């Protein structure tokens, strides 16, 4: 009997041969993102590099230099260059960070980072607990999140079958975040050791989140999917990611129910 | 082919009167109640921020937010130095590619920054943020930096970057090969030479 994972992999490979690429999978997953605006994290730099982008009609909104990493906020990116940049992201030539839609989104994401005082790549007990607690709260209300190792924490995504108002999404996310923080505190841990950022945030122009499928630009760690059974390798992470769209995408009605149900859930401690 | 000329120019306390504006900023404790800081702690921290005696990297969480919010308010209200727009326009006419080089967290204030530059008719080609301006200039091969930061006033000449700095209370006692100035005309004359 063939391995079910291999079967799914063959199906994905087959659909890719029919023109459905990893870049298409990313676009499907983050379907409400407007990829005409991106933040690009690369090691490339220089005025010639900027001029190349400008000749392609891309507007360089601003540039940040952090260590040896250059981050370019780009606007007005034409579809052909969006595809190129997404392919570069997949080929590990740089990271694409996406901006959430200003009013409605089909994906919402908890971004958990180690606080600045901690070693950025060390997974602290607080971080491990936070991700477990969020998963538990989401599971309690019928959501199976997609958990990705971000390199300095986790991205915890939920996907909807159509864009839903940010107001509704934020109401739910705030409730989950507050419960998680209280739970961590009740367990005697320092909640300040984990930075919680929710996407979409209040101002969607400010924050961008690295898309799944690339290596972290600093530590070269791939954005592995973390399941209850363990951390998946790169190939299986892609399979799980593509499969997640069909298996675990929720409806707006499910989110509405989750918003009500989360209020009735007692604060619980994390499981081992 | 004509060789391109590049120059990096800071904003706060270089093109504007940031420190003066921050010191005079009227802050109402009740407007910042969302931070959940008690009144005494708030007052103490506000004093430190206004005196610029604490670095951004020393901040944690809610204090970091207070720092951001106060600075963001200050970016909007800081007065332009009277001779700054004319000098910047002169640079542009001379063919310089102008990089606005700032410590500002541009994720939060790019719109305010652009609006302020536009309001005061300050031309520029790019806006860059970095925590290390000297290193940035070396990497991007920008030979001239105009900036008030004491650490840059010391470091830039050591890395062969031609450095001009507006003389402030924070940098006036520094021994350096960089050139201090009180009017942009002084910088202009040096660049003409």
Calculate the mean pLDDT score of chain B and round it: 90
Domains of chain B (count): 2
- Strands of the biggest beta sheet of chain A: in what spatial order? 8-5-7-6-10-11
Measure the end-to-end span of chain B. Answer: 22 Å
- Number of E strands of chain B: 6
Binned, the helix content of chain B reads: 40-55%
Structural description of this entry:
The complex is a heterodimer of chains A (272) and B (193). With 272 residues, chain A is an alpha+beta fold. Chain A has a single domain (4-271), classed as DNA primase, PRIM domain, CATH 3.90.920. In chain A, 40% of the residues lie in helices and 25% in strands. Chain A is built from 8 helices and 11 strands. Chain A has helices at 4-17, 22-29, 47-55, 79-90, 125-140, 166-186, 234-248, 252-264; strands at 38-42, 59-66, 69-75, 95-99, 104-114, 146-149, 153-165, 194-199, 208-210, 225-227, 230-231. A 6-stranded antiparallel sheet of chain A has the order 8-5-7-6-10-11, with helices on both faces. In chain A, strands 2-3-1-4-9 form a 5-stranded antiparallel sheet, covered by helices on one side. In chain A, a hairpin with a 3-residue loop joins strand 6 (146-149) and strand 7 (153-165). In chain A, helix 1 (4-17) packs across helix 7 and helix 6 packs parallel to helix 8 (252-264). The mean pLDDT of chain A is 89. The mean pLDDT of chain B is 90. With 193 residues, chain B is an alpha/beta fold. Chain B has helices at 18-24, 39-50, 61-77, 84-93, 106-119, 133-139, 150-158, 184-192; strands spanning 5-9, 96-102, 126-130, 144-146, 162-166, 179-181. In chain B, 44% of the residues lie in helices and 15% in strands. Chain B starts with a strand and ends with a helix. Chain B has 2 domains: 5-16 and 80-192, 3-Layer(aba) Sandwich (Rossmann fold); 19-77, no CATH class. In chain B, strands 3-2-1-4-5-6 form a 6-stranded parallel sheet, with helices on both faces. Chain B is built from 8 helices and 6 strands, in the order E-H-H-H-H-E-H-E-H-E-H-E-E-H. In chain B, helix 3 runs parallel beside helix 5 (106-119). The A-B interface holds A 45-47, 50, 60-66, 73, 115-117, 192, 205-207 and B 4, 6, 57, 60-61, 97, 106-108, 110-111, 126-132, 135-136, 139-141. Strand 2 of chain A pairs parallel with strand 3 of chain B, so a sheet runs across the interface.
